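ok trying this again, last paste got cut off
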Amino acid sequence: MKTFDLTVVITSFHSRDKIFSCIESVGKSIKIIVIENSNDETLKEEIYTRYQNVECVLSKENLGYGAGNNLGLSMVKTNYALIVNPDVILNDDAVSKFFLSIKNLEDFGIIAPISENEKYNNFRIKNDKEIKEVDNVKGFAMFLNMKNLKLINFFDDNFFLYFEEIDLCRRLKENNSKIFIDPKIKVSHSGGSSHNSKIEKPMELSRNWHWMWSTFYFHKKHYGYLSAIIKILPKFSSSLIKFIIFLITFQKYKSEIYKHRLLGIINSVLLRKSWYRPKL
């Protein structure tokens, strides 16, 4: 059985329906760390019953994507880590191909695969054959050079959801570390379905709140407060108009979505932390 200098980190939140397929696709010879953000003790027990190579940590609170992955990465002892979402399934040769890629790279921060789901296709370079340097990649699967990640202290865990991988890539590049996509490496990624479908409505409200909060925070962090205001103003206006329309036409759920968008913007503009969590 071939071994790799690699640890896989999976941050989960009500992900029972997906996570076992993800773990199975990694295999039994690679160390896996699961950060369980929904504090599911039954899931932890089942993981330990089924797998000897998986460590499951109950976070006790919903840390989100960035801070959850940071907790997992802080436990990694290998030179490389692979972050994957629970709804990702690795192709049989994906891990081997990551290690083939790094043989030809003098220095890198992240190598990302492409997804067989075109909607989540890392800039739609599926038909390219050669590895390509890019500014940033999507966060569903990222092969990390731990040496370079440690230099920038991993993710900015002020982000609860959205923009955290774009911010990570930006800081890596500012630190002279390169980002690549290798189209020869493929994974299956459902996209937007890491959690149980029964909680989709509260998760959708949370996504809308955090999309707006993170949009403003990212632009404020990298371009300044005024630039962030200019960036967010059209989104605020659009969300306000749609909120009013859906409210007066008695479309309750749609009005709730745009209410949460507005609240995400307001909280970020007021420099409040990313405090909102899905109400489950």
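PB: full thing came through this time. The beta strands are 6-12, 31-36, 54-58, 80-84, 88-90, 110-115, 132-134, 141-145, 179-189.
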